[in-house]
Fold this protein.
Amino acid sequence: MPELPEVETIRRGLSKLILNKKIVQVDVFEQKSFLGKKTEVVNAKIISLRRRGKALIFDLSNENSFLVHLRMTGQLIYQGQEKFAGGHPNENFVEELPNKQTRVVFGFSDDTKLFFNDQRKFGFVKVLKTRDVEEEEFISKLAKEPWEMTTEELFEKLKKKNTTVKSAILDQTIIAGLGNIYADESLFFAGVRPDRKCVDLSFTDVEKILLGARRSMEDSLNSGGSTIRNYVKADGTRGNYLDLFAKVYGREGKKCVKCGGEIKKARVAGRGTHYCSRCQK
Ligand SMILES: [Zn+2]
């Protein structure tokens, strides 16, 4: 699932390519992937591209916006002179489009296109009034992101939770933007075991978790997340973007970068969880 840094990477990459482009056509191949009316989007220009949590918000010149949520397998692929692809990394990044995973296509007046692909169809495009974006149910519930939140705020929230720390930091109403990858990376950075109870965390633990969240997401942003750049390496082979920043996620059985011990994988909060039993207490 694309996480916050991947979505931010898409926002930055697409902003350079689609701002001020006029949408002249919308093709919907899957009705449940497009909520709203095509007519509210067609003939409008994209005037800004924002992000709230893991949702991308395309603001249009006609006071409408459309929101894109990639969920599990969503991708946005821009095809013009340049190609830019981000989201769930797979062969669509480099294949001809549209294909059977293409749900919505936006056509621009300069003949370039933006494809929304989504194999499992949990993602969506939703058209709404720009003034209603902040009240949209998904967006209004979002907690602060790690950069906006103080240690005091996170500590106050966590000390009331009777769950494991992994489960709590995945909760988007507590802290926004941490998915399975960055939750594991943050806890490794902090030296905190994922199955520790929130009530047992010290202020310093929480401070380190917050720093770890910022640091791991920034490392990912600097590496470009799951974009075409990382999917296809310079030599034409497939790259795994996780290799660029992940210290524990997806590294079970490999050596811990800090202590040389073995990275373990266990189920915590119902999710595959990666940690070092020596470095994390
Ligand atoms: Zn270790």
